[in-house]
Each structure stands twice: as C-alpha cells, then as structure tokens.
Design goal:
The protein is α/β, with parallel strands linked by helices and 294 residues long. The protein is built from 14 helices and 9 strands. The protein folds into 2 domains: 161 residues, NAD(P)-binding Rossmann-like Domain (Rossmann fold); 121 residues, N-(1-d-carboxylethyl)-l-norvaline Dehydrogenase, domain 2 (Orthogonal Bundle), CATH 1.10.1040.10. The strands form 2 sheets. It has a 6-stranded parallel beta sheet, sandwiched between helices. Strands 7-8-9 form a 3-stranded mixed beta sheet. The radius of gyration is 20 Å and the shape is elongated. The termini are far apart. The structure holds nicotinamide-adenine-dinucleotide. Nicotinamide-adenine-dinucleotide binds next to helix 4, strand 7 and helix 7.
Length: 294
C-alpha cells in the first residue's frame, strides 16, 4: 500500500511521521514547502500537487483546515481526482461538515475510487504519540483496507457507519468540549468573584458531579498561566460554525450551541484567537473584571 498525505500542518506532520516510521512509502504535499522538506528529510517523497500525490498512492490521507480547501484539493484544478487511480481510497482526517464529504462521493466514485470521512480527536500530543481517536464513515470494507494505516496514527479506531457519520460524531464531540469548557471558565470567573480558593475548588469538583475532561485538562494549562495551544480558539470557532451548519442541515435549532459560538467569537474579538481554547477564561475575566487565581 502506497500512502499519500496532503496537509502537513500541526496534525499532518506528526501523523505522516508516524506512518513513515511504520515502514510505509509516503508521498506528501503541502502549499508550505518547508513542511514538505521536513518530511522528505524523514524519508517521504515530495509531490508538487495533489494530483501528483494521487497518481503515486493507493490511500490518500488529507488533513486540511476547512471544507473549502478540502473541496479544492480533491476536486479542483490539479486536484486529487485528476490523478487518482482506480480502487484508490481518499480518507479525509480533517474536521469539515458531513455534507462536504457526502457531496464528493459521486465525483470520487465516477473515477472508480472511494472516499471515507475519518476525523480525529486527541490534538497535537495525540498525533505525536500516535494515539489519536479516529471515527470513520463510509463503506466498511473500504474502512478495513485502511485500518492498518489508521493503526499507525490512532489508538482508538471506530467504524461508525455510512459516509459522513464519523464527522457527525466528531462535530458533536466538538460541541460538547466547547460548551463544557465555556461553563468551566464562567464558573471559574464566578469562583473568583465569590472568593473561592481555586486549588481547593478544582480538587473537590474533580471528584464531584461537576467534573469534566474540559475542567481536568484545561485547569492544567490555567494553573501554569499557560495559554499556548493546544487547540486554538480560532480552530474551535471554525468547528462551532460547522456544528451550527450541521444543525442547519438538519433544520434543528441549537440554542446553547449558538450562545457558545458567540462566546468564542467574543474571545477572538478580544484578541485571544491564537490562544488555546482555555484562553476563553481571559475573555471571561476581562468582561467580569476579575482574575481567577493561578
Ligand atoms: P494546520 O493549519 O496546522 O494545518 C493545515 C495544513 O494544510 C497547513 O500545513 C497548510 O499549509 C496546509 N494547506 C492549506 N491549504 C492547502 C492546500 N490548498 N493544499 C495543500 N495543503 C494546504 O491545521 P491542523 O491543526 O493540522 O488541523 C488540520 C485539520 O485537523 C483541521 O481540519 C482541524 O480542525 C483538524 N484537527 C485539528 C486538531 C488540533 O488539535 N490541531 C485536532 C483534531 C482535528
């Protein structure tokens, strides 16, 4: 199996490194030439377009910033579809809407190829450690063919169901993480106003019903006054727009989701877009003129 990898960013770099480490032949492409060179230094082959990656690969993995870029890279000029081989597979690891991938299915199948949505969770540390969670939608036999490659980047690998279903789970996960964290930082601002001891608060709540992954992982950052990403507020904003668009596609009002989205936008407006998601606390402190003790 020859592997293609397009999008060598914070996630794509460590993922392609891990695929290479497992002995695969990997051809890479990114608009950023430095990233390509870095991977070539680790044994990858460089391509000059997505088309060239596709022509050299049996499985083409994508890790790209947003739906527009995924569409362009797959179906645009010099895109994957211009070079794809019959029976090849595109597995999109990016976070986009289910509709983005569903719309590509007829174009991919016209070429005798297949596509899976395969978004990941676990952030840059998970990508570096090869311990991501991956949730996959599409034909099960196509998933089975990709599984050995997924095993090089992920510890938890789930086949969810039909095309788009991996992304549905991923976006619901993003919605939950974003909204859990929004209530954590508002609660921290309230604790500060009310004069509650921060360390005791977190210790007790970690063993009580108010605990969450958001509280446990992000207090670690906050207690060290570290707001470097991690997972950027700007990326979470993008994911929350996708969540709202998924609600729109399903004609469903997402009341809390809308409010949470606006909170993250406010944090961006306050200048914290490039901070980790827990930088939402900085916006909350600013609005409430209070500081949660570090
Ligand atoms: P990133 O911005 O660091 O990387 C994206 C890469 O895509 C960049 O290297 C960029 O140069 C490249 N790129 C942009 N346009 C391109 C094009 N037309 N052709 C080829 N390459 C192009 O983003 P990331 O953090 O690596 O995230 C990638 C995807 O994974 C996103 O969809 C994100 O939501 C998702 N994700 C990120 C995390 C995280 O913690 N960062 C976690 C889970 C999922």
């Amino acid at each position: 199996m020859k592997i293609g990898f397009i999008g060598l960013g914070n996630m794509g770099k460590p993922m392609s490194t891990n695929i290479l480490k497992n002995g695969y032949d990997v051809t890479v492409y990114d608009i950023d030439k430095n990233s390509v060179e870095l991977l070539v230094g680790q044994g990858a082959k460089a391509a000059t377009s997505p088309k060239e990656v596709a022509a050299a690969s049996d499985i083409i993995l994508l890790s790209l910033p947003n739906p527009h870029i995924v569409k362009e890279v797959v179906a645009g000029k010099n895109g994957v579809l211009e070079g794809i081989k019959e029976n090849a597979i595109i597995a999109d690891l990016s976070t986009v809407t289910p509709k983005t991938i569903i719309d590509l299915v007829p174009l991919v199948e016209e070429r005798g190829a297949k596509i899976l949505d395969a978004p990941v969770s676990g952030g840059v540390p998970g990508a570096k450690a090869g311990k991501l969670t991956i949730m996959v939608g599409g034909d099960e036999e196509v998933f089975e063919k990709c599984k050995p490659v997924f095993e090089t980047i992920a510890k938890n690998i789930y086949y969810v169901g039909q095309i788009g279903s991996g992304l549905k789970v991923k976006l619901i996960n993003q919605y939950l993480f974003a909204s859990n964290l929004a209530s954590v930082v508002e609660a921290f601002a309230l604790a500060a106003k009310a004069g509650v001891d921060a360390k005791k608060l977190v210790e007790i709540i970690s063993n009580s019903s108010g605990s969450s992954y958001a509280l446990k992982t992000r207090y670690n950052y906050i207690s060290r006054n570290n707001f470097e990403p991690g997972f950027q507020i700007n990326l979470m904003l993008k994911d929350l727009s996708l969540v709202l668009s998924m609600a729109e596609d399903n004609d469903m009002p997402l009341l809390l989701g809308g409010m949470v989205h606006q909170l993250y936008r406010l944090a961006k407006r306050k200048g914290f877009g490039e901070k980790d998601v827990c930088g939402l606390l900085l916006a909350m402190e600013n609005i409430n003129e209070v500081k949660f003790p570090r």
